[in-house]
Structures are given as structure tokens and as C-alpha cells.
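hey can u check if this looks right to u? its 380 residues, i copy pasted from the old doc so theres a chance i mangled smth
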Amino acid sequence: MLRIYTVVGARPQFIKAAAISRCISSQFSDKIQETVIHTGQHYDHNMSKVFFEEMDIPAPTHELGIGGMSNAEMTGRMVIELEKVFAQEKPDCVLVYGDTNSTLAAALAASKMNIPIAHVEAGLRSFKKSMPEEVNRRLTDHVSTFLFCPTDKAVENLLAEGIDGIFKNRPTADKPLMLNVGDVMYDNILHYHEKYSSNSEIKFGLESNNYIFCTIHRDFNTDNIERLNDILSALYALADVYKYKILMPMHPRTADRLKLPEFQYMFGKLSQHANITLVEPFSYFQNLFYLHHSRIVITDSGGLQKEAYFLRKPSVILRQETEWSEIIDAGYAVCADADKEDIINSTMKLLGFPLPEYQELYGDGEAAENIVQSLLTFLK
């Protein structure tokens, strides 16, 4: 029995882990024992527990409760606690997702103990090392034994960094298995289609295909007064001048920032405007439901811009760059950064023209099975 330890800590990881956990339990439960470790990076119920409940992710065997501190302190404490778990239980493989502090901590702990690391969403690059996520993903890739890429571009990025991947024999951290397996989030979009596309009532006075869906959570936006005020000003103009309805689930970090005096004026204008609805964070299915019924997305989230593409929705990205450059190349997204005029103009441009023909950029919905089969083949 192959013993795989899945380490998660943040909302996007719960979503990705659900696809692989579902694959293991439905097809490989006689060959793989999965143990889930929750670092505690996201500890709010609406950002954590609700995802385990909704998506039938195995309850965590270990909950480390490490969150709400600086990136360095959080990562360091996670490494220490994960090392203790790995030393005692000796997993055959540690499975990590994406680019969070939890990802890097698990990779560092496992690497020091010569435990094979499988990185799901390997090879993504923003080419901006000032982003903590970029550092996390790069370091994780360079110590992993299995590099499971979601796109051909991700494979190209790894090759350009000199990673000498193999495609047969037993992989090692020096010569990892590097494959384009597709995207596990696309697996979920297909699997849960009936749940999020149901005829449930659209609340908040909104109409299908007639509102903007907006999320803001990146620290370089929320923790920068000028950037966040510019973004809020653009949203207000879209609602007030252009009369668009806006639905905005509030990430806890963003909600906390908007309570500060420097945002009192603009936050007051937004919260009182009839066309703007500010709500608590949605569960996974609620999020997909309102994304599915929206007309366009404005976000700084990597996962949401990708889910928008899966659902044939255009995106205005509140960043200078994106790891998912294929979406921009396909004509479904524009990077507007935090510039008020660019946000407004990009939104109006995307709303003003028909979207290009949809392209299957992220596999065929079998990414989780490709990953699990590869682990079974090479970890015997």
C-alpha cells in the first residue's frame, strides 16, 4: 500500500486536493492510503472547513494550526512541525499543491529527509520574484521528484531553468519526472457541473449574465493604500457611471484592511451603493454558481481567472502579469494592474466584443488520474 501524505493549508489547495482525493478513493483505494495534513494557513471556516465538507475531502489527520503570522515565521514553524510528522510516519511521498507557504514548508521538510515530493501545478511562473508565491513555487519545483505541470508552457518554463526531466525509469530530485498532466481544477469544473450550474435562485437582486464578479485578496493590492484605493475607485465608477452591478465576496484580509481609516471614504461609498453587493466569502459551490452566472470577472486571484476561463467568462486581472498567460493569449483576459483607467477600459473592451473561440488549454479533465497513475507507476 502506497502511503501518500497530502499537505494543504489554503483555499486553492483544498479545491485542487479534492480532485486527487476523489480519484484515489473511487479508483485506487486498494493501492493508496492518503493522509491529509492541514497546516492551518487558512483557518477561517469560510476559507477552510467548509471546503472539506462540501467537496468530501478526507478529514485532516493532522491539523497544525499555524496561521496568522508573517510569511517567514509561518513557513519556519510549518517546516518544524511537518518534519516531526514525517519522521514519525515515514510517508512514501509528500504531495503539495501550488505556491503557498504550506507548499514550500512541506517541500523543504520532505527534501531534507529524502522523501519524494510531488508538486501539482509545477512550472508556473510570473517571473516576478518580489511575489512570495513565485519564490515558493520556484524553490518547490527545484527539490521535487515529480513535476506535474498543467500546461505545455509550464513544462517549457522548467526546461528553461535547466531542470533535467526524465520520462521513464525511476525519477529522483536530480532527474524528476516532468509531465503535462492537465489541470486538476478543470477536473473539478467538469465533475461538479450539475452542482454549480443548477437552477438555484440568484440572490442579491442580481440577474444571470448581467453583473461583474469581483475578488481582491493579494497582499500587494490589499496592503498598498494607493493600489487598493485605485481598484475601489474603478469599481465605484463601473457601478456608478456605467451602471454595472458588482458582486464582491470579501476575503478576510481585504475586509480587515477596509476597516482602516484610510479606506473609510471609498469603502463607505462602495458599501452604500445600490449597484454594489459586498458579501462574506463564498463556499466553493457558491463561488462557482455566481461565477457561472456572471458576465465578467475582475480579480487578482490566479485560480479564479482560470475558473472563469473554464466557464467561458472574460477576466480583468488586477496584476501586472499572470502565471496563466495562455488565457491572455487566447483573448479571454487582460492584465490591468491596479490602474483605475486601465481597469475600466479593459472591462469595457472585454464586454464590448464577442469572445474568441474557446480552446482546450488545460487538458481533458483527467489530470488527477494521470497524476495518481504516475505515482503508482514510479513509486513501486
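The mean pLDDT is 93.
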